Amino acid sequence: NHLSTEYVEMVDPHDVLEYKANGVQEGVYRKLRLGKYSSEAALDLHRKTLQQARQEVFDFIRDSYRFGLRTVMILHGKGERSNPPALLKSYVNKWLPSMPEVMAFHSAQKQDGGAGAMYVLLKKNDQRKQQNREHYLRTSRAR
User: Fold this and answer.
1) Do 77 and 65 contact (CB within 8 A), yes or no?
2) What is the mean pLDDT of residues 87-114?
3) Please, where are the H alpha helices in 1-111?
4) CA-based, 20 to 30 A from 6: which of 57, 65, 129, 131?
């Protein structure tokens, strides 16, 4: 687990968090940001220590990728009552871009938790890539 609990740049409890790796299409990112993709799994970090959250985020992203999930949600909370405020939110914001499986993330829409949650877009794993290749090969032959 390479996720660090060293220095983190703190964010405000109400900040909107966003990240998009190079190569992510604007239309895909817009749909993620607007909550248009249904979440295939969720991780709730409420009442977790920093060390617990670190391990759970690492395991959750790795397992989700391994099982071929594409869109997941992390509920980190706003951290208004934590000391310092937004501690877990700040670390999740730091950790996710360092994980090669993560393509993009954005704070959730209000109905899904708003600034206390985020949508995460994961890369396709090798099995999903192969399924796509086979699907496009079949459809191109059918024409």
Assistant:
1) no
2) 96
3) 26-33, 50-66, 87-95
4) 65
Residue 61 vs residues 13, 98, 111: alpha-carbon distances, Å: 23, 12, 23
What is d(CA 95, CA 89) in angstroms, rounded to the nearest whole number? Answer: 10
Rg from Cα positions in the chain: 16
CB 119 within 8 A of CB 73: yes
Contact 18, 97 (CB under 8 A): no
State the DSSP code for 16: P
Q: At what angle do helices 50-66 and 87-95 cross, to 10 degrees?
A: 40
Task: Write out pLDDT tens, residues 12-32.
Answer: 999 999 999 999 999 999 999
**pTM for the structure as a whole:** 0.88
